[in-house]
Amino acid sequence: MDELSILLTANSVLNTETDDYWTYSDGDQYEIIPLYNKQNEISAYYVHFSSGGYAVVNNNINNPVVLEFGEGDNNQLQEIINNNAEPHIIYNSPFSLYEETEVNALSTSEEYNIYDYYPDLKETNSELANQLKEQKAMVENNLNARSDYGFINWDDMDNDSYTSDNIDYLSGTDWITTYQTEDFGNNHCGTVCVSNLALYFENAGKINTNATGEGVFIWAHQYVGNGPNPTIAPAAKDFFADMGYNLNYQTCSTTDSYKTAISA
Asked: How far apart are CA 46 and CA 61, in angstroms?
């Protein structure tokens, strides 16, 4: 199971105080620890949320059932995790689990395996599988619909006062939008950005595109393509080179570096 499927399955039992059972808040912190059977296969995942609550999720996308859950954390599992840098936990049942390196193999050879206790875990549960599939699609669509596409953590943004200013040649540039170009691309804000950069440079007299705004977009789209794409600078440089202009760019990774670049 992938990470999102594990988180959604865990939350299906931890959010039962509301009607919205299948949700995950990306502000919560969590850890996911694989749990193994005696054949060294990942049979389940232990999920623990910083806001409180844990769940053990079956590692079967066709049967995403929760084996156990509760408030806080699982004390026995958490103790193993806290005492081992790289825990390898054998999970036979909620009552039979241990760190592999700390237990004599002979003393556990007669124990039942997880699938001896719960043979249905390998079976298909169509109802649960379809619920998870539907909810996962909803979450992924919501993430794609976000204006920042998940690239920005708003908690890291400054809350200080600011001053505003306009760059030269702003008013005379015939900017284009994603709405105007929706017939030519998908998640294409990166291409729109590069296109507007070309239109701005043209208005400043640095290049000559000999094209309409849509024409510039179609041209730029050959280099940038659809997105979401957070690293458009190399493609923009190639696009400008096609127009005979050497476009330089610099990586900015802090707020101060952005301010310096914008003010330059």
From this structure: 15
